[in-house]
Design goal:
single chain, 150 residues, mainly alpha
Length: 150
């Protein structure tokens, strides 16, 4: 069984996750969905072309993009209540102590126990989810009425 100590975040993963915070939520869900699809080993020849959100949005037909966005949203929705509670708690205690990549990696480690394998040890997926939580903000995460992801 893997623990959060086994998770490694490459500099590229953290840089890209930090950039995602400035994107719209659908763009982040698109990237998350493509990573989830990779982990599920979905056989899709267009997946090899999904290099970045910009490439996806501008060069692939919408019917090739929407399934990945939907997959990202559905994945996050499954875990939203636990993520919201953990994110609220962790950001309340640590949000002012960290910034940028340190904030992303700290929150990613804090939420890793909420997911089954392989997602609980996949740094890129955890960093993307941490970016979504950071972008949503502490007000959204700590709102008891926020039943669905942004």
């Amino acid at each position: 069984m893997s623990t959060s100590n086994d998770i490694r975040f490459s500099n590229d993963v953290l840089v890209n996750a930090e950039r995602l915070i400035n994107r719209d939520f659908n763009g982040i869900y698109l990237v998350l969905g493509s990573h989830i699809a990779d982990l599920e080993r979905i056989e899709d020849p267009t997946r090899r072309q999904l290099m970045s959100e910009r490439f996806i949005r501008h060069f692939l037909p919408k019917d090739k993009v929407e399934p990945y966005t939907r997959k990202g949203k559905e994945f996050l929705a499954r875990y939203w209540e636990a993520l919201r509670m953990e994110g609220c708690s962790w950001l309340s205690e640590n949000g002012s102590k960290y910034a940028g990549q340190a904030l992303i990696s700290g929150l990613a480690l804090a939420i890793s126990h909420l997911f089954p394998a392989p997602w609980n040890v996949t740094g890129s997926v955890l960093a993307i989810i941490a970016s979504i939580l950071i972008k949503a903000g502490i007000d959204v995460l700590c709102d008891q009425k926020q039943n669905t992801p942004p």
